[in-house]
Amino acid sequence: MPEQIAAGVGVVGGGAQGQQVVSDVGEEEVEDHTFNEVPDYSRIGESRSHLDDNWSLDDEDDMPGGGSSGAWTEVSGVVGCGINLAKQRQWKHCITELDQVKAQCIKVFGKEVPTRHDVVDYFFGVSSALWHVFRDRLGWTHQKFLLFMATNQRMSIYKCSSAELYNPDSPFDTSDILSKEEYTACWNDISEVGRPSTASAGANTEELFWEQVEHALNKLLRQVT
């Protein structure tokens, strides 16, 4: 049986039928597939376009033959390789973009060294187009708007939901922000604003609240980028 497996032949059936299958295999064919042969290393490397030591096959041919001589020739113009070059290029682009944003903020804020307070006042201050949308559409006071935004920022920092933030057993700080009831009421205001009284009246309603917020935010971002 091992000799038959080495020769790539399976025994079909038993008795005379099985013996007939084995006897049909020539002696020379079995010898060609023996496991005692010494591997031929003469062509190792010829079938691969290695660039080790700046050498490769003629015509960059992986399999010598046809128009290739199969000989190794020296490669010119090999630049080399690097690690994390894509990340380095991306970081350079990021630095360039940050420099552009900084220069634009200096122009918009009118200060050579803008502070965090300048950025917060620009997006959420009394002159902010974003705040004007909440004031005009929801009738909120500026303090309520600031507390609502501060609550959202608190959840963003902690990477949690409102349920997790206001959980009595949670370790999160809920001081200086809206209470759970106040925060829920704010979202109820947002869900009700601009809602049409009937389905047929939907096409004639004013611009949706979230669209106004989006437009105001995009306007603020365009001025500093």
What does this structure look like?
- Helix content is 50%, strand content 3%.
- The protein has 225 residues and is an all-alpha fold.
- It folds into two domains: 1-34, no CATH class; 86-195 and 204-223, no CATH class.
- The chain has a two-stranded antiparallel ribbon.
- Helix 6 runs antiparallel to helix 10 (209-223).
- 6% of the residues are buried.
Whole-number tally of structural domains: 2
Question: Helices and strands: which structural class?
Answer: mainly alpha
CA radius of gyration is: 38 Å
Described by strand count, sense and barrel closure, the largest sheet is: 2 strands, antiparallel
User: How many DSSP H or I helices?
Assistant: 10
Helix content percent band: 40-55%
**Poorly predicted tracts of residues:** 1-31, 45-52
* E-strand count: 2
